[in-house]
Design goal:
The protein folds into 2 domains: about 1-55 and about 220-320, no CATH class; about 85-190, no CATH class. A 5-stranded mixed beta sheet has the order 3-6-7-8-9. A 3-stranded antiparallel beta sheet has the order 2-1-10. The protein is elongated, with a radius of gyration of 35 Å. The two termini are about 45 Å apart. It has 11 helices and 10 strands. About 55% of the residues lie in helices and about 20% in strands.
Length: about 350
């Protein structure tokens, strides 16, 4: 373990690490990447657990919050009647559900200064003006108007427009494309006529409530599963992703080596790139932590620079080793192989 951390540091600052690890097998290099990402995942897991524990009180309140919202989600005075795949309601139209129609309030103050018999008095008055937005200025979740047509969708400023024969909704807020869904598409197996009102809605919600109460338990189990996957499976995908990126990065490294007149094979560059990526991974984590913009898009370019900087030192070391071998006296030369 100590050697692992030492090697991580050496891969960032010590060129000799790359020479000493030159004969390391592919499996050892991959295991090194995997373990590095595992430690990164452990740090992420600790952060995730810390976030969960910090918000544990709010998580425990989720069932109460959700149940409260479920009680008011469907209007008590609304009844939807479907007959022959056509909708009618018991309320004036258009009927809005989940409106964000706000009442704006403005306040103004006025100060009056009076001077009498050498005495100055000041009086302040405040006026409050309440303005209700005009009809049609709201932003609704659902608007029901059985007299509307799909061509009227834009004027309602709603997410869903329920009409007589179907509903219309925006497919994308950017494109403005409106999609129409006929009631006949999802009421094929439902006997008609039938009415859906608050009592019907409550019956469905009451079947859901037991599962809502278990949400904190489900989240706890989910956290345990997420931590296990993050620590053991996450590094597998991340390290494999590094190997995939190196397939392309090593091509640039190969041509960079040609430019600086170094004779490195593609496999040689790829092999050393597995270690050279480690400093860049750590750099990426640091820049993400301090939120430095732009670095995330160029970290593989930095890895390429690492390879270009470190690999020439390997060639120089080989040259020095060969020169030393040539300069040895005959007694120190390696003996010839046996016949």
């Amino acid at each position: 373990m100590i050697n692992l951390f030492r090697n991580i540091i050496r891969s960032c600052f010590d060129k000799s690490f790359y020479k000493e690890s030159e004969k390391d097998s592919f499996g050892k290099r991959y295991l090194y990447l995997y373990v590095v990402f595992m430690f990164v995942a452990i740090v992420g897991t600790i952060s995730l657990v810390g976030y969960y524990l910090t918000n544990k009180t709010e998580i425990d309140k989720l069932p109460t919050t959700i149940n409260t919202q479920l009680n008011t989600l469907f209007p008590k005075d609304l009844a939807l009647r479907f007959d022959n795949n056509e909708l009618s309601i018991n309320q004036p139209e258009p009927y809005v559900i989940g409106t964000d129609n706000k009442i704006s309030t403005t306040s103004t103050s006025k100060q009056t200064i009076t001077v009498q018999d050498g005495v100055t008095t000041a009086e302040s008055t405040a006026e409050t003006k309440t303005v209700t937005n005009k009809e049609g200025d709201f932003s609704a979740i659902i608007t029901i108007d059985t007299k509307a047509d799909i061509s009227d969708f834009a004027k309602y400023k709603t997410v869903i427009l329920a009409m007589k024969k179907g509903v219309a909704m925006n497919q994308s807020s950017n494109s403005g494309e409106v999609k129409f869904y006929s009631y006949s598409e999802f009421l094929k197996k439902v006997p008609q006529p039938f009415t859906f009102d608050y009592i019907s809605y409550t019956q469905i919600v009451n079947k859901v409530r037991p599962y809502v109460a278990l949400i904190p338990t489900y989240l706890s189990y989910g956290l345990i599963i997420a931590c296990i996957l993050l620590v053991f499976v996450g590094p597998l995908f991340l390290s494999s992703g590094v190997l995939f990126n190196l397939l392309f990065l090593s091509i640039f490294g190969y041509f960079a080596a040609i430019i600086i007149k170094r004779k490195y094979s593609y496999g040689y560059i790829y092999k050393h790139g597995m270690y050279a990526a480690i400093p860049v991974i750590l750099l990426q984590l640091i820049t993400d932590f301090v939120k430095i913009p732009g670095i995330a898009n160029i970290w593989w370019l930095i890895a390429l620079l690492f390879m270009v900087i470190f690999l020439p030192s390997l060639e120089q070391n080989k040259a020095i080793s060969s020169s030393a071998e040539i300069g040895k006296p005959p007694s120190q030369l390696d003996p010839p192989p046996m016949a």
